[in-house]
Protein 1
Amino acid sequence: MKVEVVYALPEKQTLLALEVPAGTTVIRAVHASGILGIYPQIDIANSKLGIFGRMARPDEVLQPGERVEIYRPLKADPKEVRRRLAAEGKTMGKTGKKESGEN
């Protein structure tokens, strides 16, 4: 069956399509894809994995056409960033200020 394994860096995304036997698990697909050879910095033992944007266990069995995603750790905790910005009177989204020339 066909599946994909994907890993993304800020500047580059790698998507590898592969053929695996029925019953292949998430972690086996990652290893079979060869992506760990391309990105040796991936700490697969501590990486979070997903299928189409939802968290998945390494031992979860894949279905045909599914995409395994290897997630990188966040550099900053979003909750902490929001707290810091709120303390400074700022937000993560739009400022809410009107642009010049608007009434």
Protein 2
Amino acid sequence: MKVLKKLAFSSIIILALILRMAPYLKGGAIMGADPYYHMRLIQGLFLVDHMYAGSRTALYPPLFHLLMGFVPGSLVAKAILIPPLLSTLTVPAAYFLLREHEKEAFLASFLIALNPALLMRVYFFPELLAIFVAPFFYYALIKDNERLFAILGVVLCLTHVFSALFYFASALLFSTNRRMRVLTAALLFMVIVFAFIQGPSLDYVRRPFLLPFFVCVGIYVPLASIAMHYNKNSKGLFFFLALFLVLCILLPQEVATYRIPALGAVILCIVAGTGMLKVAQKSTPMFFTLLVLFLAIGIMHSMDRSPIYSEQDVAGVSFLGENSLMPVMSTAGHLATYYGSTVLVDEYYPYSPDHGKRLSSQTGIILMGSKDYRVPEAYGISHIYVESSVPDATIEHMQRIYDSKARIYFLEYEIPFY
């Protein structure tokens, strides 16, 4: 029996790794845009650029970058291999949290392996480390281990600001009068972290990417509600789910990038797994239907992922850097800066000076064919870089000096304004 259990758990781990690794193997490239920013931070923790965030130094919690700096291999190799491995490790971490309750542990591990929000957040960035730490953080909370709670609280603060706030807030919801020192520590951590957070931007919602949120709300939350119905001490879980839904409503762009569902996935999957056990007691066919449904959702989200930037994009920004064509205007700010360019807009700092004007002008010229070049001219922009996924019909009137599906155009200010 023990051999079968080990085989079953190993199968869950292998499944989780395959689903997370498949998009990287299929695309053969780094997933997402943010990894290029964090790859720069691994090379040096302080980024200074005369157009970046208004020429100021950007300070980011350093733990992830310091740890990744010690991992052998090239940055590109680490950005491809580390995310699937680190995300997969969240599965046994959650099993560890529930190891005294075997059935719940197996189902929670299965749901975490297939959770769509987690699958869509497998990028080379600090949030992945924070999600991995979360089960141990909750373990310290449940066991009233104040020392471990404090240590992991520091780890979260040094890893990712928003994740730390989320987990400290959930710790407050789960705390009772018997954990006053833990409660005080969580409040203190939240005050410290909040003092450094600079606020999220609410300027966009990527509507095509909302499916993981609706899956969480439409399937995971109802299953969690079933579990809570049978748990007389579920007040903390109720408030956690309320926090989860409120944050999704207040921070729509966080829903669009799967952040809130991903951060809440550990607890959500644990409670949903308990709910599935209750379903199994009532209806075995319904239980197996849910298993197949979760498997299908996981596979669908895994196969739906693809790299944002292609080999042609990398070749294009390499050309920019090698020929010192800067500063440039590009919708691929992180990619261009990693390869040595200075850009009009870096996506990571929407609250930098004049960001609204910069972004509006850049979007208008690259995506809508605007000929109002006052903003780029004021910043000394001489070239426009357009990644391969952007159609070029709107800017074909410009002089194209490079083309490998990714294009570089010379910005001609003599074209009159509208």
